[in-house]
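=== Structure Prediction Worksheet ===
Name of assembly: unnamed complex
Input type: mixed (protein and possibly other molecules)
Chain count: three
Listed entries:
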Amino acid sequence: MLFSIVVHAAPVQNQGADTALRFARAVLAAGHGIYRVFFYRDGIHNGSALSSLPPDEANIPAQWQALAAEHGLDLVVCIAAAVRRGMLNAEEAQRYDRSSSNLAPGFELSGLGQLVDACLQSDRVITFGGRS
Amino acid sequence: MTLHTLNQGPANRSGLESCQRALQAGDTLLLIEDGVYWSLPGLPCGLELPPQVQLCALEADLQARGIASLAQPVDDAGFVDLCLCHERIVSWF
Amino acid sequence: MSGKSFLIISRSAPYGSSAARDALDVALTCAVFEQPVTLLFMDDGVLQLLAGQDPQPIGQKNLNAVQQSLPLYDIERLCVCRASLDARGLETQQLLLPVEAVAAEAIAQLIAEHDVVLSI
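=== Predicted Assembly ===
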């Protein structure tokens, strides 16, 4: 079966980001596929290249990156939600005349259409929320 | 048949109430994160499930919070299985 | 690409968080992709539909304007949870748009009628 995972929860502040990651690992371990992970609302912070944690704490963005590298996951961050919150890739940094970018490698910025497409292409869609 | 997940605990009663309103026979309610507190055995004004709704709770969240739960514990692989055997998933948060 | 029916559940009041606007954005995107979409307003989400909003003093865009454009995008099925209206002392006549008031017992059926349910 093909899953898509929608993440609204930001790492650190909400457990939802970590639950989503564990769920993604369990899907892959069971031999199923993940069509896309779509990060929306504060979930865009999962794509940060700058998350810096003590070594004994989980770096969720780094773990998404590692999982994506191993399994070829499509990690899509909602572009409208991201740029509003200061999460930019090099192209958007240039467009908005910002001095630096901070979207981690392995993540891409794209529109909400990618969420609808993920729902259409997947057998199951599950959302991991924070709170409102 | 729908799988419902609830991640809000007793501090957010409307999450539980809305979720309960949306349950029907054949559905499963999986408590995750702070939602597992709804399965505390002594909780007054707790869960009121319609007949033929299965109640589960994510094992890792029960263990993390030290909860001896009334719900059927489910591990991460079981969570995925629940998604497979229901047609859609509704997340309450 | 095969089509699917979408149900978007919106449970947050407007303006205090971005959730109401974010839910509308998803609904509009579904419509742009020509997928049938139903909006279900529950809990404080019913407050989004109160007429007479003027968020100009708080520097936000008026959600009523976006809501009024929903029929233009063929988003014609707007449902509100009757119990949520009752709990806030509201009636459908006080709302900006014509809505279908759904009884508590019918919420589960509404969910079961849709292929994909997105909560925002």
